[in-house]
Write a structure and sequence with these properties.
Elements: E1 4-13, E2 16-26, E3 31-36, H1 42-49, E4 57-62, E5 71-74, H2 79-82, H3 88-93, H4 108-120, H5 136-150, E6 154-158, H6 166-181, E7 185-189, H7 193-199, E8 202-206, E9 211-214, H8 215-220, H9 222-237, H10 241-251
Parallel strand pairs: 3-7, 3-8, 5-6, 6-7
Antiparallel strand pairs: 1-2, 1-4, 8-9
Helix pairs in contact: 4-5, 6-10
Length: 264
């Protein structure tokens, strides 16, 4: 049974449709990248899956006992969020808020899990540091640890590498891939089609034309070939170091080590 199934859904704002007839399913252990043009409805789809916005039509269902509050979410950061005046440990622990119910205090087990997730993200040394003092890559690791406190099953990531430098981007992609390899299902919005086909198991392309299927099928599709050709053209004409780093991260064990202060 699929963890998340979307059947013939339409998305939009104020009754104005931007995506129609979208159907796809996410199974346990999948790594789904959602790609497409700007304004195509990728983030709107994320919000709809989370229950923050209702689809204009169609149906979204959850299977295998998955509940909405068991989905970890890493949204795009705003300037206000980057300057949030709280310690790293406090922010990570707040990932349990959706599971407190009528309780007012975090349990010992929750606190231990928060610390374990900080170790998992290689940020345990920053526990007492103020969140706003960290680098962009370190902040994203904090938010990933927070999302892991909400779930051990599904993570929704909305442009997790936006605004990060090439080295940190490569390290964060490698870290997300590690999480997926431990069995966590990943659903990620990305504008980076090269990274999408490198790391994901499935692609959902939304826009005027849509596609859902495996990465290999996407590469062979007319839509996939068109978008990959644009990416390859930019790759051939660019000296951007990020392209080299992303390729290295796909198979380099160096990108899986813990970051030092000032890095990701």
């Amino acid at each position: 049974m699929s963890l998340i199934s979307c059947e013939n859904i339409s998305l939009g704002y104020d009754g104005e449709e931007i995506v129609s007839g979208l159907s796809f399913a996410v199974n346990e252990g999948d790594y789904l990248c959602i790609v497409g043009e700007n304004g195509a409805g990728k983030s709107t789809l994320m919000n709809t899956i989370l229950g923050l916005r209702a689809p204009l039509s169609g149906n979204i269902s959850f299977g295998d006992g998955l509940k909405k509050n068991e989905i970890g979410y890493l949204p795009q950061q705003t300037i206000v969020q980057r300057d949030f005046p709280a310690s790293v440990y406090e922010i990570v622990l707040s990932g349990f808020q959706g599971r407190l119910g009528k309780k007012f205090f975090y349990s010992r087990e929750m606190k231990e899990t928060a610390k374990a997730n900080m170790q998992r993200m290689h940020i345990e040394e920053f526990g007492e540091r103020c969140y706003k003092e960290l680098s962009g890559g370190q902040q994203q690791r904090v938010l990933l640890a927070r999302a892991l406190c909400a779930t051990e099953r599904v993570l929704l990531l909305d442009e997790p590498v936006a605004g990060l430098d090439p080295k940190v981007t490569a390290e964060l992609y490698a870290l997300i891939k590690e999480l997926n390899e431990t069995g966590i299902t990943i659903i990620m919005v990305s504008h980076d089609i090269g990274a999408a086909v490198r790391y994901a198991s499935h692609i959902l392309h939304v826009g005027r034309k849509t596609f859902f299927g495996t990465v290999e099928d996407y590469k062979q599709s007319k839509l996939g070939k068109k978008f990959l050709a644009v990416y390859e053209d930019s790759e051939d004409s660019s000296d951007d170091e990020s392209l080299k780093l992303l390729k290295a991260a796909a198979g380099s064990p160096d990108c899986k080590s813990g970051a030092k202060d000032g890095e990701a």
